[in-house]
Amino acid sequence: MSNFSNAFSSTLGKKLVMCLTGLFLCSFLIVHLTGNFQLFKNDDGLAFNQYAHFMTHFTPIKVVSYLLYSSIIIHSVWAIIITLHNRKARPQGYAIKPKDGSIWSSRNMGILGTVLFVFIVVHMSNFWYQYHWGETPYVEYRTDLNTGATITKEIQASEFTDYVSYIDNGVEITKSKDLYKETQFAFQQWWLVAFYVLAMAALAFHLVHGFQSAFQTLGWNHHKYRPLIKFVGFWIFSILIPLGFAAMPLYFFFLK
Amino acid sequence: MSGNMNLTLKVWRQKNSSTSGKFVTYKAPEISPDMSFLEMLDVVNEGLVKKSEDPIQFDHDCREGICGMCSLVINGEPHGPKRATTTCQLHMRSFNDGDTIVIEPWRASAFPVVKDLAVDRSSFDRIQQAGGYVSIGTGGVPDANEIAIPKVIADEAFNSATCIGCGACVAACKNASAMLFVSAKISQYAMLPQGQPERYARAEAMVLQMDDEGFGGCTNTYACEAQCPKEIKVTNIARMNREFFNAEFIKG
């Protein structure tokens, strides 16, 4: 009776793809935000740069990151496929826009998603591309393990071969690409800060509909746990997480 | 007569599904606020017939809010401005003297216009025929309470079964999706013992038929629930998703 191609080519199956990739992207937001909170640490970026190295070189995380990139692409492509199909279902529109009691964001996920897609492209070319293949500053940290004091020194590209961290005579020496400096530098530009804050507003509206919608698509709509899903979707995913992300460019622009 | 209303109607006129339509403006003078919306259209049509003009075609049958035949998007709202009310049960007191009322048909490629405001909803019939039934023999009359069904479940199934299949959900949805209708029809059997033998085959067949008819997909705006004259809940859609995914991935 059943076959998988039926399942995924149906309107419900296409929605399932949107829902699963969307929820996976939501889970990434938590990791990304938690990790990036190290930007607020007052250590000239030592913890953040160590974290950045770990995230780009630890194999299981690399595997997950490729899953993540494909999720972004699949989520966007499926959105276009679904939208085109849905447009075809009503070739002739209404003269009077239907008053339907739906919330604005639920009807405009495409616009919000487009803003987010542009944001992801800009964001990845600013940091992800620069970190992997572009030019970054380099930094050396020397931490005296007895006193705990750290001396930070910018180093030249010629002095840097690869990420190293070792202990020499009671001093921990870490040489790293300086993504922290890169971040600080990027967020000196007011328009980039403004764009990031705007994108996070789009994220908030995208998730206020998207998070609870994903559970409806999965068929998890029950009066017992529906309020919990709505609470988490609203307070955590559309308020706390976008605010946390928006705080980063604002912190660097105003306080660094 | 005092208290009567003078209205202006902008009505969609379309000869058939292969021609394009347009709005035509009509005066509806001396309309009693106690008339139903359809009676108001009857009055306008009588005037048109007297002038030897083509009367406005619209669907109606029981005029008691239970048959699901009446339709009309009135000022952008399927079945008009009153919640949980079909067009035939909508009264002219819901409007004001001097109002302009825009009347359109359900708009969906799966509901082609037959003429003017009447659309062909046989796509719903075909979805129902794909699996919206119980084919087991019912036999003789069983003893009362032989099949025990908890009251909450019976009520829930009954609520789903109150769907009259009018298509307002499709008309309200920005994607012209039929999922509220289909999910109500799947739900009314999925919750009851009589529906179990064909439970998953039914869900799969009805969903695939819905797709074949060219309805759009659900984007969870819940406009359908807001506009449904029978207040069918979107929890039905969640249930349909469960039933369908179960059919495809687990129970099939």
From TrEMBL, chain A:
Listed GO CC annotations: membrane
CDD domains (UniProt xref): SQR_TypeB_2_TM (cd03498)
Transmembrane region(s): 12-33, 63-84, 109-129, 190-211, 232-254
Superkingdom in the source lineage: Bacteria
InterPro entries linked: Cytochrome_b-558, SQR/QFR_C/D
Keywords of the record: Membrane, Transmembrane, Transmembrane helix
Protein's UniProt name: Succinate dehydrogenase
